[in-house]
């Protein structure tokens, strides 16, 4: 486990409204939203952990999973392998979009050309673990 992607949990309709009305006008700033499921989105644009700063790569060194712990879902970023100090953390955003493909600029040799995919109904991978089995990380 590297870090939890934390922020305000909102409904998808609220996330869409925020993105259109507010966040699109933020010059030089991004929108940091991560879908848990069809009913919940984590909005880390104004509050949350620094996990929202982890960039996309088509050949990432981390991956994300929704983990259920003590009855609550959490988005956790895990390392795929040992990552040396000073190496940028990345994961594959690969979110489904109905509108447009967003160009990828990761620069890796296996780049697929887009950060997202079109219309996948695929459910995110879920891991269920009691909170007592999770390691408390002290930074």
UniProtKB/TrEMBL annotation:
Gene3D superfamilies: SET domain (2.170.270.10)
Keywords linked to the UniProt accession: Methyltransferase, S-adenosyl-L-methionine, Transcription, Transcription regulation, Transferase
Domain called SET: residue spans: 1-94
InterPro entries: Post-SET_dom (IPR003616), SET_dom (IPR001214), SET_dom_sf (IPR046341)
Gene Ontology BP annotations: methylation; positive regulation of DNA-templated transcription
Oxidoreductase found in the keyword field: no
Classification via PANTHER family: HISTONE-LYSINE N-METHYLTRANSFERASE TRITHORAX, HISTONE-LYSINE-N-METHYLTRANSFERASE 2 KMT2 FAMILY MEMBER
Name of protein: SET domain-containing protein
């Amino acid at each position: 486990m590297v870090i939890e992607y934390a922020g305000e949990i909102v409904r998808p309709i609220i996330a869409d409204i925020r993105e259109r009305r507010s966040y699109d006008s933020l010059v030089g700033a991004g929108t940091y939203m991560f879908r848990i499921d069809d009913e919940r989105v984590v909005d880390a644009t104004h509050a949350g952990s620094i996990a929202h700063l982890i960039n996309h790569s088509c050949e990432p060194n981390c991956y994300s999973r929704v983990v259920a712990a003590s009855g609550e879902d959490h988005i956790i970023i895990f390392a795929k392998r040992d990552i040396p100090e000073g190496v940028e953390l990345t994961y594959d955003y690969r979110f489904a979009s109905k509108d447009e493909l967003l160009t990828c600029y990761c620069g890796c040799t296996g780049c697929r050309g887009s950060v997202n995919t079109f219309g996948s109904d695929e459910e995110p991978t879920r891991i269920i673990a009691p909170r007592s089995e999770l390691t408390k990380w002290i930074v």
